[in-house]
Amino acid sequence: MNHKQKKTLILVNLGGPRTKDEIEVFLTDLFTDPFVFDLPLPEFVRLPLARFIAKKRTPKVTKIYESMGFGGGSPLVAETEKQAKSLEKLLNTKSSIQWTVKVAMTCGFPHIREPEFGKPGPDTIYLPLYPQYSRSTVLSTLNHLEKKFKECPVGSGGFIPSFASDSEFHQITARFISEFFTGLLRKEDFLHFPKEKPAIHWKESDLVFSAHGVPMRLIRKGDRYMQEIESSVLGITNELRKLGYQGNAHISYQSKVGPAKWTEPSSLSMIESLSKEGKSILVYPISFVSDHLETLEEIGEQFKTLALESGAKSFTRIPALGIYPPFMEFLVKKVTQGDTLIRHCQCKEMGGESLSTCRFK
What we know:
The chain is α/β, with parallel strands linked by helices. The chain is 43% helix and 12% strand. The chain contains eleven helices and seven strands. It has helices spanning 23-32, 43-68, 76-94, 135-149, 167-181, 216-220, 225-242, 267-276, 293-309, 325-337, 346-351, and strands at 6-13, 98-105, 124-128, 206-212, 249-254, 280-285, 314-317. Strand 6, helix 9 (293-309) and strand 7 (314-317) form a beta-alpha-beta unit. Helix 3 crosses helix 10 (325-337). The longest helix has 26 residues, at 43-68. The protein is globular. The mean pLDDT is 95.
């Protein structure tokens, strides 16, 4: 009897509280991560401070999640699970291999540290759902895996690199934006999708590519995140031009926390400035592929309110890619190619440092 080869794909995302009860746990995981909450402090000071901040922010964050309408939690885990189901179906359709696709988070649940998520290699592949490399996302994921398995997975055949500079990703994203405005997307596949096709001249509107911000301290350590964002935006904008887009494209950064200097310009200042000029504003979440708090609440509600109160002609939130079929097909290609061609330390090149167990040292 012939038995199918079995493989597991693990989709990695930052995470989000599924319920109200998980909010403090999620925030504690977030702020205790040394690649996210990166401060020049000894660990015996940094960790208690991180836990204190998480506890202090919990009531405020709880109110925000309550306002979103997802039962007091975030839809990110559920949205990532939808992507997992879509990819599992595609992989099993296109391959003689029997695939199982799971979801793991670096903050909250289901946490990447859990024993059900096996060692990266040819049969267990980790795919971080971050288009752009950053210390706070990709390097953080690698650090979790190194702690768990005592080796960095880059080059093992079990880790998929970021894809911000991939021309096919640029083409797919441009097509997605175009299809959103021409009414070709399946409304039921997206959260908070507009009931009617936006009645604007989108090809002449100002398009803001809003990325999650990071502290400049990370950039100074060698994080190439800003270059990754710029590469994505340049490629997507060039593809949009081919589809007739004639407006101005902008890059901005959202979700700043604390007093430290973060990547700029801020999305809030960008939105306000364009609004005061009476622009029609479109916002696309360039660093996210799943809708959640930052896209639905921050962009969809806070930015929209600011824009309309500041004089914008119109404001339109473009959803994240979600289970958009061409994007799912693109990820399937990435998974089947793997990372076996990597022969150097991407962590050093893209994040500014190698992990202790790097196989390329």
